[in-house]
Every structure is written in C-alpha cells, then in structure tokens.
C-alpha cells in the first residue's frame, strides 16, 4: 500500500502505522470527515449538496490517520485525511494537502503505540516497562495515561501526524498538531472579533501538568512569510506553555538537512535529531536567536574562504548587504569598493561606532578621519567640493558635532556601515549619543532618504547581519527597495572551526590557573577580558600585573581604552599596525576596545586564545572577541552563567518592553504636568517609531542572551560550527588541593586592592585644574594617566563639594552619587524633585527640537522612582530612625503586599526584580540598597509565637548630610540645578523658566500611582 511506504519513508515503525493509519476510498472518507452535528442537513438527514460536492474528490481515495482522545482515553473521532487527488483552495490557488473534519474543533494527534515502541520510549528515559502495561484489547489510552503519570518525560510538539510517528518510533514522547496554531484557542464573537485571552486546547493541558519539559519542533521553512508565521506560532504557544509552568525549548536544525523533523531523521539519522534535541535553546534564548535570522532573498551566495576583491554589483542597487563570517576579508572587499568610488570621484562616508576602529578603516581606505580632515575641505560648507570623503562615528552624525554634518550633502555618496549591527545599536542606545540622539537619528533618516532617491549607494556588512538591521534601514529610508544581498556561507568548512574548551565553574579561577600553566610551558596566549578597571578582579589591569609578577621575563602587552589612548604606553598607536605590534609580545590582554573591526592575521605566533566573559558584553561581542585571532588555534573560555547588563526592564518580549517603556513615559509626563511644566504642549513622544521598534528588537535580543548568558554564548559558538568541550573538574581528594585556588584568589585580590588603592590615592593627590584647563583637557582624545586623574578629581570636587580623598573616589566608583541623589530627593531635596526632572526634560527637548527618544527620556527622569518609594512607605520608615523592623510588622507587610502585587511595574520603574516569595525585610533591603543604606540586625525575639529577627535602618556616617546641604543650597539658589554644575546654573535656569509657570513656592507635591502591570 502506498501510504505504508510514505510513512515508512518518514522512519515510522510499521506496527505504529498499522495501529493509526488506514486506507479509505469511495464513500468511506465522508464517514470519517463529515460527522459533525453542526453540518447543514436536509429534512431526511442527508448532508447538503454543497458539502457533498466540496468533498467529492475524496472518492478517489487516500489515507486517514487518527489516534487517542487524550480527554477520554478512547479512540479519537477527529483526525486527518490525505486525499490522492486534493482539491484546490480557491483563495490561495494551492492544493489542500490534508482534510480535517469540518465544523468541529481540531484536536491533536496522540498516536497509539505498539508495545515495543512504548518500551523504547520508557527505556530512553530510564523507566521500567512491562508487557502488562500494554493491553492488547485496549491499546488506545494506555501509553498516554502512562505518560501523564510521568511528568519528567519531555513532550515534543510537532506539526503533522507522520512527524509525531517518526519521533515516537525513535523513542521520544511526541504529539502532533494539525497546524502551527493548533495548540491555541482564541475565543471570538459571531463577527470573528477576539473576546478573550488565548488559551491552550484541553487535550494539551492534560499532558503538561507537573511542569513537564516541552520541546517545540516545527518545520524549518525557507519562504519568508511562512518563516514569520511559524515564529509567531512558536512565540504564542511557548508563552502559554510557560504560563502553565512548563520549561519550553525549541528544536532547530539546518534546513538543508530536511524541512520537517521526519526529514531530518530520514536524511541524517536519529543521532542528528538527538544532537538537535540536546542543543535545543530555551524559549527565551530562541526568541533572541530568532531576531538574529536573515530571511531576505540572496542575490549572490558564495562558499569561499576569502571574499573575492571584485563582486559584480548592479549600478541600480541602493542597499548592498554583505553577510560573511569573521575573518573572510569583508574589509578587504570594501577597500576595493571604496577604491572604485574614489577613482570615479564619488565621495565616500564611513560611519562606525568607535573612534579607533573608524580610524583604522579610514587608513585602509585611504580616507581622512573627520578630526584629521584638512582645513578648507569641508563638504558641509561646500557641497560641490570634490573630496574623497571621510570617516566618523555615528555620535557625530548631526549638525552640532565637529563634522557639522549635513545629510543633504551626501545623496550622491557611497556610504559604508561596517559592523552595521553594532553601529546601529550604538546609535540607538549608547550613553555617548544620549544628548544628541534625536538629531543623530534624524540625520540618519535624512541621509538614507537622500541616498535612496539620489545617485548614492549604501554598503552594509556584518558577520551577524540580520533582518533587524535591514528592516530598520529600509523603513527609515522610506522606500520600498529590495536589498541586494550577498552571503558567504564559508562557516560550513571545518578548517575555520576551532576547538573551544569551556569551564562550567562559578568563577574563572580554574581557567586562570590553566592559563598560567600554559604560559609556563612556553605558550603565547591572546587573552580577551570584559573589563579594564583596576577595581575588577579579572580586568586587563589586574591580570597584567599578576602575570608580570608571575613571568617577569615575558613581554606582556595590555590593550584597552586607557592604554591605547596613552601616548607613553607601548599600546599607543598599535591599532594602525596591530599584527606587527603583537608579534613582538608573548602575552596580550585585550579589553572590549578591540573586540570588533580588528583582524589578527599573524600566523604561528599565538598558541591559544583565552577569554573571561563576566556578563557585561553582548553574546555577539564575546563570540567576535574569540575570533579576533584568525588562526585556528585552541580557545579556552569561562563565561558567567547569567549576565547583568540588561536593557530597559530586562523584558525578553518586544510588546512587553515597548508597553512598559510607553507606560513609564506616560507616568513621567503626568508627573511633569503636575509640576506645571507647560512645555509639554510641544513635546513629541512619538519620535521615530521605527527607531523605537529597532531599539526594542536589539534590546530583547540582548536581554534574552543575558538571562541565559552562558547557554547563549555556547549556543552561538556551536551554531558557528566550533567544537565545544567542557573542561572536567578535577576531583578533590585532599583539602590541600584547594590551596592553589585559594592562593590564586588571594594573589589576584591583593594585586587588585593594592593597585586600586594606589589609583584612588593618585586621583586624590592629583594637581587641581582650573575650569578652563578642565574644559580644554576634557576635549582631548589623548590623555596621560596623570591627566585622567586630574579630570576625575575636578569632577568629584564639583559633584560632592567635599575634599577629594581616596575614600571618596572608591565610594564614587561604587555608584555613591546615584544612591545619594535618590536619598536626597526622597528626603531633604523632595521639594526640588519636580524642578530637577523638568530641567532635564527641558534640556532634552531643546536638544531634540521638542522631540524625545523614549528610552533616553525615561532614563533621565527620577520622579517615578521616588514616587514608588513613597507609595511603599519607605519615606516614613526613614524618618523613624530608631524603629525596630521585622517581617510581622503590619506596615512592613503592607509594603510587601504592594510591592509583590506590582512586581512588573517596579521592575520597569525602579529596576529592581523581586522574587515572588520575597519577605518584607528582603524587599526593604533591596530598596535601601538603592539609597546606599543598610539594615542592622538587632536581635531575635518571639512575636505572635514565632521566632523573629529584628532589624533597624543603619544611620550612615559617610558625610552624605554635608553633600545634601550643598545640593540643597544649590537648589535654593537655582531650583533643580544641583543636577548640574554651578557654572551651568544660569544657562539651564533660563531654559527652565521659559517652560514653567511661576509659582509662589518651589515645592510641588506630586501624586503618583504605579503603572498597570503590562501584559506579556
């Protein structure tokens, strides 16, 4: 029978086929399909002619599949029929491959299992199986009842009965849906309008109790519209499953191995599926990876180790996009593109996100960096001037910058965005762009629009190019263009894949020990680190000193933002001739300053690459850092289990992130309205919705990576094809084996503490600067360590109006300023909070011409944070200095009840994540941390027959009251300007007075309610 062969080609067990699939022809298919009582019938009970005609094609025969009704445990009436001669969907013009019973709710395919397949599933999950478990006379519900009783067995959800049969035959618990949305029911009224929340179908809910692990394995399609639909279905189904308490993972594989999961097993065997199953990312991580996809059609597909210098690009193409793996010569190819533009006297504009990387590109392209552009060759002043062009950071893409950038003068230019994903994210989120972000994004939009309608072209390239960047640029440019996409798929070649040894430990101590042994054995490592500061235990500065102490005879070079900018440091100028410079050193330590845009092509020098990823950089940044050295040498990585550098409220859902951002904006505006801030009439909060959406996409991608940081980094590296191997922990047989670990930690901490204290003291003892000298030095890109120390001392003096001591420097590094600002405006400075927020809002509005970018605006405002603390009653608790506090205190319980009821809103507004089981004391402690305050344990006593710990808020002895008095005096003289330095007072006050009504008192009591928790 043909259907048996069809199912067996999908690797379905023959006995399983026999139990679930039958052949039908003639009138019999109608008996199986048209059983619903809702179908229209004549008075004699016969079906209406319209349905008989619609299903007339089934007479030619086909196969029918149905399984077990999970709700009853008996044979399921519902199923599907695959006709030999399918009818055509009149709306889509496509054959309808499968027919399901009309006018009845769809179900799922829970197939009957023969005993040996049931045993295979049990054995795979190390469970006992007996022939008695399977009843020959009633095999229908036995397996599924058994599965319900074992919630530890993962359940795979796929689409299509054959795929479920293939998975069950391979020993996996699996059910199939009739379509990608088959797990969801959305209530609608008679007009088709949604009238309630979506929910899981009852059959599936029966199977997922007990927090059963769920795996979703839908088809790997290529058609963009289908891909988007499948992604949407996975997100919606996965969300409901997570709400039901199930951990959810998504199984993916290379679509070239087969479209469906049965194709994967048939083409590459069960081992290939097992690998995909074991490597399946969590739903949150999959959502982040989903935003890394590139679905635009390719115009050229290459499979080459290095890109050819010349690629034919149609002259009419406006947006040329290149995706090619790291180290395949993207920059070299762009050199030829730029050379062609210069030869035909077409100006070139190179836009990047880091000064030194843009300088490096300009050097390779034969262009000037904007700072070095010869005088008299300024295209912004003379648009008809024929110059080669220049490079600049996206921070300078506005009229007030040193470039005095005018986007209308570049419509005929060649525009290059190398590492485009990072350039755009820098423009959308970096603190260095914050003051001018609206102008930068406006200039970017006008630049794209002018090029798209003019004679110019835009080239973008990135190893991790995704739809996010292309969608954003096309939407911003306002033209319906098809990007000309080139993809180099060389990563499939194993010659570029390295072996990565990763350490699954809680700290990187074991990696550092192995690193030391590697150097002792003559190894020359390249070491990638997440930080440069002396305060960090695993920074470039600390490890440099540690390794120099261990190996005084080795040449060690530190590459970070500080050393690269110091004219007296050996690293100064290294970026211009990076390969020649590094060849002179035995050990190189690099911070994120060299994570992108740098290709280390020297061969036979470095013997290994080591990396410590502490949860600061994005997942892509870590993977790029590991690939800076192009030679295929072993890599060693320690990566933190969780990251902490999230964006916004840390949401991993675009709607949740945008909704929370918009509600916080509305709250902040409402607070400003109550403060009589009349300029709000001219405030545009809807600035560039396309930029806000792109910000959210990037942010969600980063947040999901941070939630599962280690998993995300390793998954990304595995997708690139690298071989991962966990470094096994050595067994500890005696307590003396722990000594090396302790000695290492002690040595590292001693170096860190000694050098950090020396740095703090050097800042405190630095020569004071005048205001004029400060302003001059601040603008200088090249600063010696002594000059940086002078700048820091000046800023601390202005910030606190205290003698600058080593202790003050250390406190400031511990975010003392932010903590004190919150404490000040919660207490002594409360009457001036409205002025402070209004003043900063006025500044942002003036910079943006009345427009604001929502994330920047929310970041600048403090009223909602202070209002939240007041609602919780923290102000009252602070005023009662000697009050004993405990978990049974009614006021503390009220605080906890409000906080836990508004956990999502507090996460958005204040940035604190509270666990559902947080006690009142735990919650209070989290809020006190924001103020730099602590709880002091007093005693334990019996209250209400319970042993209860008693605490008290410690009164800090840290000179904060002196600082508060200084800020108060500034605010009394110039309301709200304690947020700024005194010399800027009059300038900002003038702006504020132009946008405020005059009131008899500066004090404005704001009313505040926590935003409604957003839906996910």
Concise summary:
With 1016 residues, the chain is of the alpha/beta class. The protein folds into five domains: 2-280, Dna Topoisomerase Vi A Subunit, Chain: A, domain 2 (3-Layer(aba) Sandwich), CATH 3.40.1360; 300-488, Rossmann fold (3-Layer(aba) Sandwich), CATH 3.40.50; 496-642 and 708-730, P-loop containing nucleotide triphosphate hydrolases (Rossmann fold, 3-Layer(aba) Sandwich), CATH 3.40.50; 765-804, no CATH class; 818-993, no CATH class.
Write the topology of this structure.
Elements: H1 2-9, H2 14-20, E1 21-24, H3 28-33, H4 49-54, E2 62-65, E3 80-83, E4 88-89, E5 94-95, H5 115-124, H6 142-148, E6 155-159, H7 161-169, E7 174-177, E8 184-185, E9 199-200, H8 202-207, E10 214-217, H9 224-243, E11 248-250, H10 261-268, H11 270-278, H12 283-290, E12 300-302, E13 319-323, H13 330-343, E14 348-352, H14 355-365, E15 368-369, E16 389-393, E17 414-418, H15 420-429, H16 437-453, E18 457-462, H17 467-477, E19 484-488, E20 499-503, H18 509-520, E21 525-529, H19 540-550, E22 556-559, H20 561-564, H21 578-582, E23 587-590, E24 608-613, H22 619-626, E25 635-639, H23 654-674, H24 689-707, H25 709-719, E26 723-726, H26 739-764, H27 771-779, H28 785-800, H29 806-813, H30 816-826, H31 833-847, H32 854-860, H33 863-872, H34 874-879, H35 890-901, H36 903-909, H37 920-930, E27 935-943, E28 946-953, H38 960-973, H39 985-993
Parallel strand pairs: 6-7, 6-10, 10-11, 12-19, 13-18, 13-19, 14-16, 14-17, 15-16, 17-18, 20-25, 20-26, 21-23, 21-24, 22-23, 24-25
Antiparallel strand pairs: 1-2, 2-3, 4-5, 8-9, 27-28
